[in-house]
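SEQUENCE AND FOLD
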Amino acid sequence: MRIVPPSRPLTLMALMAAAFGATALPAAAQTAPAAPVTQAAEPGLSVTAVRDWLISVGAQVGEIQRQDGETFVQVTDGNVGWTVLFNACDTADVCGAVQFSAVFTNPGVTLEKVNDWNRDHRFLKAFYIVGDDAKPLAIVQYDVLIMGGLGVDQLGDHTLLWVELLETFGTHIGYFAATPPAAPAPAQ
């Protein structure tokens, strides 16, 4: 199974228009002050809405879990499992941030490979630890701030980036076999 969430591209111009208003007039030429920016009624996403959205885009998602003050769901995507942790949540389980997280353990996990990843890749932070059983672990994470009023579809691009880079990271540390380059076509 491959999760392919719907994409909703947001250009720099759209971001600027949303943040500063759609007017292009110089400040001195404006006749009335701009309306104040209002906070959306729900400044995040509910845990249930995120879980339901993940299921709607094809993920196999476990039940909502709570442990040691953390709220999370486990996701199975093909032969990789990962977790969505919910952060900055209020008492109604509306959260202002999520963190995608996965743990890899295999003989290819080394401190050097994790450091190489962090040096060469902007997204997905990784760190290396030795587990209780003395096996090396690579933990990779990706944090997302939730914008109020945009709904769960704002997770589409972030989830797609996470899934694609998770596979790249898994290949980098030897969890997945690297795909050999295609052989050139025979000359005629």
In short: Helices lie at 12-20, 47-56, 111-120, 155-172. The first helix runs from residue 12 to 20.
